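In the present case, backbone shapes were mapped to integers, as reproduced here:
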Amino acid sequence: MKTEKHEILLRVENLVKHFPIQRGIIFMKTVGVVHAVDDVSFNIHRGETLGLVGESGCGKSTTGRAILQLHRPTSGHVYYDNKDLVAMKGEELRKMRRKMQMIFQDPYASLNPRMTVGEIVGEPLAVHKLADRKQIRERSEHLLELVGLNPKFTNRFPHEFSGGQRQRIGVARALALQPDLIVCDEPISALDVSIQAQVVNLLEDLQKEFGLTYLFIAHDLSMVRHISDRIAVMYLGNVVELTERNTLYSNPLHPYTQALLSAVPIPDPFIEEKRQRIVLQGDVPSPVNPPSGCRFRTRCPMAADICKEKKPEFREVNPGHFVACHLV
């Protein structure tokens, strides 16, 4: 199934998600907020894979969950097929969720240990009342076969499977409602290296067959380059750079992106020996009290006075290449 990649399926505009910090035993008082996601904007085209990368704690997973409304955004808009998900509630939002699914990071925690595999994979169909018991069983068997598992495994429980097999079950569950968009929240980070490639290849095969659109969240830059069409780089709740994958790796413009890519090993000892590593000083600031102006300025080797005073605009510096940096 072929899709037009220039058609915008998902549009995220000025997305913000803050988590309140509360203290007290009887009377809870808000004493601060965690700035998990702050003013994030990007588009995802139908049929493409957008990679979302960054350090742990930078807001990648929260962005994915806020898009699906698992975390209701503090402000901003998420347009799916030009319909604002943030403005939806109740039954209207529940119907939209059929078109959007999620593959979770931990294959051990995301599957209910008391349910059989058939019940887990068929649960979305039962929740949305789209099939009877016999149809759910048949559909579950078909989905297991689709992700490379024996369809006769429907009566087994999650503890009887390996990590890679459990993640395949998670993929099958995400496909049950035939969605257009799947948010892959670090789907391979908990798996062995030998299994990671199998799961990524499975995702690519399913995308070609069903015309799926992925938001692929990860911190493995080499794997993101393999699977993504475009890549967005996050730092402390902000997207700092967004462009096509080959452009990002050949011509990174933001200092943070340059530092990230310098840490990716190259399988050529001669090139690896000659290239310069960029080692960032200090630690990532707390999202409770982020720096003024540019979030990256406290660790940036190029920081100037304007970086402290003014937040950089996320702007297009080359066709399709967006950067949030005063010095680019």
Observations:
- The chain has a mean pLDDT of 89.
- The radius of gyration is 21 Å.
- Residues 193-210 form the longest helix (18 residues).
- The CA atoms of residues 188 and 196 lie 5 Å apart.
